[in-house]
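Reading a protein record of the kind used here takes only a little practice. The integers have meaning only within a learned vocabulary of local backbone shapes. With that in mind, consider the following protein and its fold in token form:
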Amino acid sequence: MCLFLFFFPVFICSFMVAAPIFGYLGDRFNRKIILSCGIFFWSFVTLLSSFITKDYYWLLVLSRCLVGIGESSYSSISPTIIGDLFTNNKRTMMLSVFYLAIPLGSGLGYILGSIAKDAGGHWYWALRVSPMLGLIAGTLILIVVPEPKRGIADHITGRIKTRTSWLCDMKALAKNRSYVFSSLASAAVSFATGAFGIWIPQYLVRAQVVQKTAVSCTYQPCSSKDSLIFGAITCVTGLLGVVIGAVTTRLCRQKTERADPLVCAVSMLGSAIFICLIFVVAKKSIVGAYICIFIGETLLFLNWAITADILMFVVIPTRRATAVAFQGFTSHLLGDAGSPYLIGLCCLLLACTAQY
């Protein structure tokens, strides 16, 4: 846990710094070349990190920083390419397929990483398998993926397609209320998921100790059963949430033009209710708590593809990469970059208050 809380901010901070740079580049230069270079860079750094010994621990920290730079390239640029290849309901579905890769990739990463570690006999073999997949993906992007003209799917022509300065882009985005509020909502979701992933497994372990169905762990290594169950639930709910969100939005658009924000609002409110219920139900039943986690996370993950789709609708094509990058920057800055520490600090303060 301590190592994760140390590595995580290093990755997030480098991601946040690099994202606006790639957003700027993505609005002005060939996107698939930038995308491929980012993936190749990520693969190269990950492969090199597998050869770092414990005597050079600081190099491992640096490698996590560089990985954040690589990841920020394709997270900022990929949605904009999809936005220029498809439109309307088809774009929603394609963005959903793209965002399905987040939980699916996380789950496969755990599985393939464990298999590689067991087969090779050491953890660093897990870091030698994933770069090979990255190299294949980067090569396929260069060969197969087209570089669409910005705005071609929306049939946008004329003055609106003219590139403007970065400062002009930022002023326009700051005045775009739909973009600003959807970015703040993304930050709220990121805040919840960041704290959720760190502290909920520990909370469930302590709940079982209170129920006397488990013994308190005072020496390492402790059982990772609850973390594994929570990880599996997160992967499944991520897949379900994205699919349900896309289908629900598509159906609701037949009734109202405000389908996207309404689905996001209802799902977030529903998620908040079930997340609060976790802390009530866990006192009596761990199974009941897992059911609440399943429903709460599914509702929480409904927003991923829909939020990206809202951005494509409200931001002109020549500013989309910058918009995606700064939405990611805001989500991490106000969200998961600090939420695990803030919740941990609140726990310590409450514990100190309870003692007195």
